Amino acid sequence: MRVKAPERIETERLVLRRPRRDDAEAIFARYASDRDALAYVSWPAHATVADTHEFLTYSDVQWAGWGAGPFLVLLREGDVLVGSTGLAFDAPERASTGYVIARDAWGRGYATEALGAMVALAPTLGVRRLYALCHVDHRPSARVLEKGGFTLEGVLPRYCEFPNLEPGGRGDVCCFVRVFPAGLP
Q1: Domain ranges in the chain?
Q2: Among 20, 44, 49, 111, which one is most buried in terms of CB atoms within 10 A?
Q3: 139-150 confidence digits (pLDDT tens)
Q4: Residues 104-118: what's their mean pLDDT?
C-alpha cells in the first residue's frame, strides 16, 4: 500500500498544500498565465482559467494515483500564493520535482525552501531517486538545486520543448539528482 503525502506541509516561512478547485483564479493570476515566470518550464502559459482547471484535474489524478502530486506554495504570513512545487512519480521509487515562483517573489529563497520540503518528503514516500530537470541556461534554478543537495548527473540534448521560451524548439536540459539510501528516513 502506498504511503500518502500530507496535504499540508509547513516550513519556516511557507505553507505547501494540495491545490483545490477554488484556487484556479489565484493560480492563473499569480503565475500560471505569466510567460516570463514560466520561461523555463516545459508547459505552456495558461491562456484562460480553463487551462488552470485542467492543471487542477491533473493534480487530482496524481494525488489519487500516487498519494502525492503538486503543492501550492504560500507565505505563512498573509497566506499569499507565491508559486508551486511538488512530486511527480515515474515509478514507486522514482519521482521528479521542480518549482515555479511568481516573478514578484523571486530572489527571496522561496524556491530553495519549497525544494527542501520536497527533499524531506520524498524518502518518507519511498522515493529512492529524486530528480529535477533544468534548462541549461537557467543558472538561478541550477543554483537552487545545488543548494538542495542535488548533483548534476548530465546534460540531455534537445530533451524537451520550452513553449514559453522558444515555441516549437527543443532545449537542452541539465538533469540533477538526489539518491536516498534504502531504509530512509
Answers
A1: 8-130
A2: 111
A3: 999 999 999 999
A4: 98
- DSSP string spanning 156-181? EEEEEE-TTTSTT-EEEEEEEEEE--
Please give the pLDDT value at position 183.
65
The pLDDT of residue 103 is above 80: yes
Would strands 94-101 and 129-135 be described as parallel, antiparallel, or unpaired?
parallel
Residue 142 DSSP one-character state: H
Q: In CATH, which of 3.40.50.300, 3.30.450.20, 3.40.630.30, 2.30.30.60 is domain 8-130?
A: 3.40.630.30
pLDDT in tens, 43-89: 999 999 999 999 999 999 999 999 999 999 999 999 999 999 999 99
The 3-state DSSP class for residue 78 equals: coil
Distance CA 126, CA 171 (A): 31
Q: Enumerate residues 6+ apart whose C-beta is below 8 A from 63.
A: 18, 69
Distance of CA 91 to the CA centre of its chain: 17
Is the dihedral angle over the CA atoms 129, 44, 52, 31 positive or is it negative? positive
Q: How far apart are CA 71 and CA 141, in angstroms?
A: 18
Residues 107, 88 contacting (CB under 8 angstroms): no
